[in-house]
């Protein structure tokens, strides 16, 4: 692994700080882009840009935050970047991930811009993070907090770069994908391929996202939200959930390149790691009823960590998406973990 351009490059002047002269102690936020030569497991050495955002006071402990394949570097709103982030309810004042007490680092996944049309392994993402830490002169993370795909990347990082990490929190992610979940994703990718054959890429991607929403949530939630009589519209029957699914598909298409979706979806299915290779403490959070990461897989992961893992189980009608919806409960878990300074790797 090597840096092509080791100096972080701010994208525009206003990215450098969120503080004002009236509040010099306010947490700062900055964005940058670093070009790296990344040796990839299945694609050789590729030059790629790592786009990151770092929020918090200089000198504070650093927590790396990574979400699902739709997550990105903008985790939460700040004075410098006021738009809501994907983890806005978790990275906020008074939360365990308070940017006044921690430096919160996140990045755009390798391949997220759709420019890399090659197989991407979770180990590639982990190595890219190590290169990013080198460029930012960050020796060691206080914690890596990963959700879904981010939990898989976190496990790879813990195995490949243990000296860079004190503790891992892996929420709704395991050491390998479940075959049932892989089958769901395979059908989603076929929906995209069918759309491409019809010169309807957006429609194919929207359909794939709609399939995905059914796997992320639970029958219990749909039963509560959409238990109404279907309507007949233009001579066709339309069920209550279709407006929700249409909106989810349209929102996803608006922000996601097709190639990025396909390659990151594949990356989930390529993921494999030997838990015995993980040498740092791991807090595993599982959701009872998660159809993509069954509780049994999380139990197997903790057992294979041989004393380095602890398991916390949540019950939620939101299934795999619980980490985005059950923010108060997730925050309590993070507070307990980040407040525990006794456990050292």
- The level-1 CATH class of the largest domain: Alpha Beta
CATH superfamily of the largest domain: Alpha/Beta hydrolase fold, catalytic domain
CATH fold name of the largest domain, please? Rossmann fold
Major β-sheet strand ordering: 1-2-3-5-4-6-7-10-11
Q: Give me the count of strands.
A: 11
Question: What spatial form do the alpha-carbon principal axes imply?
Answer: globular
Radius of gyration: 20 Å
Number of domains: 2
Q: What is the SS-derived class?
A: alpha/beta
Order of helices and strands: EEEEEHEHEHHHEEHHEHEHH
Biggest beta sheet summary? 9 strands, mixed
Number of helical stretches of at least 4 residues: 10
Q: How would you characterize this protein structure?
A:
The protein is of the alpha/beta class and 345 residues long. It has helices at 122-135, 149-160, 179-197, 201-216, 219-225, 242-255, 258-270, 295-304, 322-325, 327-338; strands spanning 2-3, 29-40, 44-55, 62-66, 103-107, 143-147, 168-171, 231-233, 236-238, 282-288, 309-315. The strands form 2 sheets. The protein has a 9-stranded mixed sheet, sandwiched between helices. Helix 3 packs antiparallel against helix 4 (201-216), helix 3 packs antiparallel against helix 7 (258-270) and helix 4 (201-216) crosses helix 6. The two termini are 25 Å apart.
